[in-house]
Structure formats: structure tokens, C-alpha cells
């Protein structure tokens, strides 16, 4: 018995990183998984690896209303319904606020915040029609606190938590639970931009993070599984920090 037997879950940004691990874990736990991304080769290859009976790739730019409608239609045609959503797609750019071009700010908001809104708006009615289910939004520890150099990103992730709380209130009566994961530093392509020395990064996280290391994407996937499955049946509207203790307080060392 898998924890997601009988479920059909759409995961955005599923071609790599945390979304990939969520797709893999959800499929292993019995779900049919619809993988949405703009990286067609990687997303298609992952769906093929997971198997046609278990996974389907759809091109889904989360900023596009048309892509959302097409993705939901494809999911229903392939698997009959949709009763879970993981809004995972996101982008990060580093810039001080006073140096951030308007286009960059808007691009980050468009993917991280508007993409999450469009996902909720498009998929929630389908989940309701399926008899209820779950939405897991991907915020960040910067959805709960500030961090210099990522102003647009932090603003968009704070907004994701606002969307999460309001959606939880509005959708509870339809049997839909809405929660958010708030990862700290997780080892994915996003947190490993080209040119950054891995040894220096490992040393940084050894000092910064109480648990002494960067997080793994499969650890975030395990939290998303908890929030998607029945183990979290009485939880909605909440942010869940997964950061190795980074936000627990000020470290002396
Ligand atoms: N890695 C971290 O340290 C970290 C920390 C906190 C929060 N997060 C959040 O976790 C989520 C996953 O990030 P990740 O670390 O796996 O990054 P990643 O860059 O490895 O993966 C992000 C995925 O989203 C996809 N994507 C980007 N724009 C898209 C769009 N417009 N439409 C559809 N897909 C799109 C990318 O193609 C990619 O597959 C993001 O929302 C990110 O903000 C990551």
C-alpha cells in the first residue's frame, strides 16, 4: 500500500530539483503524477523513466493561463481526474533592491507568485470535483524572514504564504487542504549557480545551519508527501519550515 494510492497529483517544475524528487516519491507511493515544466527534454525523460501508467509530462509554463488549462485537460484525459497539486516551480535572482530592474522583479513575481495563484485558481475546482484533496505551495524560509540580496524573491515567497492561508480558508469547505513548505538551503541547481565553489558552499552551510549541512531535495519531497497524504488530514493553512534549524535562532558560531 502506498501513501498516495488512487491519487492524481500535478507537480510543477518537476523536471529537476525538488519537483523531480517529489514526482519520484509520489509515484513510488502510488500516485499518478503529472509533471509540468518548461524543460521539455528533462521532464519528458523523467516521465518516461517513471512509466506511462504512472507519469505524464506536460509543457506547463506556470505564468500562462492557457498552459494551465491545457495541463489540467491533459491530466484528466490521461488519468481521469486531478486531486492534488504541488506548486513547486520557482526562479531566484540575486540583486539588491535598489539595483533590481523592474523586468527582473516582475519576472520573479510572475513565476513564483502569479504561477502559484494560477495553479490554485485552475486546479482547485478540479480537486473539488474529484471529492477533495490537497494543494502544497512552495514558499521558502525567505517567505518568513528577510535575506539581503533576494528582495524580489523574498517578496514573492511571502506572497505565497498569504495565498496559502487565504486558499486554505476558502477551500476548506470543499475538502481541499492547502499548506506550504518553506525550505532553507536545499542542494539543487537553483542553489548551485555556475562558478560557485562546492567546497566553499559546504563550509558556509556547516557554519550557518545548526544541523551543519545543506538540505537534500528528497527531504523536502518527504515533507510534501506528508502534506499531500492522509497523515496530515487535520492540517491546513500552515507554513512548514524545513531548514536544518537555520530559522530557530541566532547561532554563536
Ligand atoms: N533550492 C533551494 O535552496 C530552495 C530554497 C527555498 C525554496 N526553494 C523553492 O523550491 C522550488 C524548487 O526549486 P529547486 O531548488 O528545485 O530549483 P530548480 O531550479 O532546480 O528547479 C525549479 C524548476 O522549476 C522550473 N521552472 C522555472 N520556471 C518555470 C515556469 N515558468 N513554469 C514551469 N516551470 C518552471 C525549472 O525549469 C525547474 O525544473 C522553487 O519554488 C524554489 O523557489 C528552493
UniProtKB/TrEMBL annotation:
<protein>
    <submittedName>
        <fullName>3alpha(Or 20beta)-hydroxysteroid dehydrogenase</fullName>
        <ecNumber>1.1.1.53</ecNumber>
    </submittedName>
</protein>
<comment type="similarity">
    <text>Belongs to the short-chain dehydrogenases/reductases (SDR) family.</text>
</comment>
<dbReference type="InterPro" id="IPR020904">
    <property type="entry name" value="Sc_DH/Rdtase_CS"/>
</dbReference>
<dbReference type="GO" id="GO:0047044">
    <property type="term" value="F:androstan-3-alpha,17-beta-diol dehydrogenase (NAD+) activity"/>
</dbReference>
<dbReference type="InterPro" id="IPR036291">
    <property type="entry name" value="NAD(P)-bd_dom_sf"/>
</dbReference>
<dbReference type="Pfam" id="PF13561">
    <property type="entry name" value="adh_short_C2"/>
</dbReference>
<dbReference type="InterPro" id="IPR002347">
    <property type="entry name" value="SDR_fam"/>
</dbReference>
<keyword id="KW-0560">Oxidoreductase</keyword>
Amino acid at each position: 500500500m502506498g501513501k498516495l494510492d488512487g491519487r492524481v497529483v500535478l507537480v510543477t517544475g518537476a523536471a529537476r530539483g525538488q519537483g523531480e524528487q517529489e514526482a519520484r516519491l509520489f509515484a513510488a507511493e502510488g500516485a499518478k503524477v503529472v509533471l509540468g515544466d518548461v524543460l521539455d527534454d528533462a521532464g519528458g525523460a523523467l516521465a518516461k523513466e517513471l512509466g506511462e501508467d504512472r507519469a505524464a509530462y506536460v509543457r506547463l509554463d506556470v505564468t500562462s493561463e492557457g498552459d494551465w488549462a491545457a495541463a489540467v485537460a491533459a491530466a484528466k484525459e490521461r488519468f481521469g481526474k486531478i486531486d492534488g497539486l504541488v506548486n513547486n516551480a520557482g526562479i531566484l535572482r540575486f540583486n539588491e533592491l535598489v539595483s533590481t530592474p523592474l523586468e527582473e522583479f516582475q519576472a520573479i513575481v510572475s513565476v513564483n507568485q502569479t504561477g502559484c495563484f494560477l495553479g490554485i485558481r485552475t486546479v482547485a475546482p478540479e480537486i473539488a470535483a474529484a471529492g477533495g484533496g490537497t494543494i502544497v505551495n512552495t514558499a521558502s524560509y525567505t517567505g518568513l524572514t528577510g535575506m539581503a540580496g533576494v528582495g524580489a524573491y523574498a517578496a514573492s515567497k511571502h506572497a505565497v504564504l498569504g495565498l496559502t492561508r487565504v486558499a486554505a480558508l476558502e477551500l476548506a469547505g470543499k475538502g481541499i487542504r492547502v499548506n506550504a513548505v518553506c525550505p532553507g538551503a536545499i542542494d539543487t541547481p537553483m542553489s548551485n549557480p555556475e562558478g560557485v565553489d562546492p567546497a566553499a558552499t559546504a563550509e558556509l552551510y556547516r557554519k550557518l545551519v545548526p544541523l551543519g549541512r545543506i538540505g537534500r531535495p528528497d527531504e523536502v519531497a518527504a515533507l510534501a508527501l506528508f502534506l499531500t497524504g492522509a497523515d496530515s488530514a487535520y492540517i491546513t493553512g500552515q507554513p512548514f519550515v524545513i531548514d536544518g534549524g537555520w530559522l530557530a535562532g541566532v547561532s554563536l558560531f
